[in-house]
Amino acid sequence: MNTQFQINAIKDVNFNHFFDLSEKELKDINAVKMIVNEKPGFPCRVSLEDANIGEEVILFPFEHHKVDSPYQSSGAIFIRKNARTAQLEINEIPLMLKHRLLSLRVYNSDGMMVDGRMVKGNILEKEIENVFENESAKYIQIHNASPGCYNCQVNRVG
User: Across-strand partners of 33?
Assistant: First the structure.
């Protein structure tokens, strides 16, 4: 592989306080507390792990693509209670992504989409390599294909 990459989760410090909010306070920020009733089905965007049955999660809107382009975007995501930000190694793919059908949205340095494709998670590493063969591809945002929800971002390393 010529291009190395790093998958980045969202930071836990921004959201763990949500679990201290009342139902009304959550509603005021368009968030909902839930108990996980199936696995997989509640992928945490902080830990980059599927939540376990019985765990508490919060579903809320998250602005995942803050850019000055027409492609700025937000959507609903889950976070697990007491989740810690995943610290993945270079070229590491979290298990959470390996069993899903994924949508890759590829952007240049101006936040403009230069590619988009669907891929089975079990071949994600190879597809990331293929995407980064295009020098204008600076980062990839990975979404779950069917619901379209944001998972994480892949950045070039080096």
Answer: 58
In which region does residue 20 sit, left (phi positive, over 0), alpha (psi from -120 to 50) or beta (all else)? alpha
Cα 124 versus chain centre, distance = 14
Q: Encode pLDDT of 5-55 as tens digits.
A: 999 999 988 788 999 999 999 999 999 999 999 999 999 999 999 999 999
Please name the amino acid found at residue 141. Q
**Separation between Cα atoms, residue 9 and residue 140, nearest integer Å:** 13
Q: Which helix (H) or strand (E) holds 125?
A: helix 124-131
Give kind and range of the element (H or E) at residue 25: helix 23-28
Among positive and negative, which fits the CA dihedral 93, 9, 49, 88? Answer: positive
* Close Cβ partners of 17 (under 8 Å, ≥ 6 residues apart): none
Q: Tell me, what amino acid is at 54?
A: G
**What pLDDT, on a 0 to 100 scale, did the predictor assign at position 3?**
81
Query: What single-letter amino acid sits at 140?
Result: I
127 and 117 Cβ atoms separated by less than 8 Å: yes
3-state secondary structure of 103: strand
Which residue spans within the chain are E strands per DSSP?
Answer: 4-8, 32-35, 56-65, 73-80, 101-107, 113-120, 139-144, 150-157
Report, in angstroms and rounded to the nearest whole number, the Rg of the chain calculated over CA atoms. 16
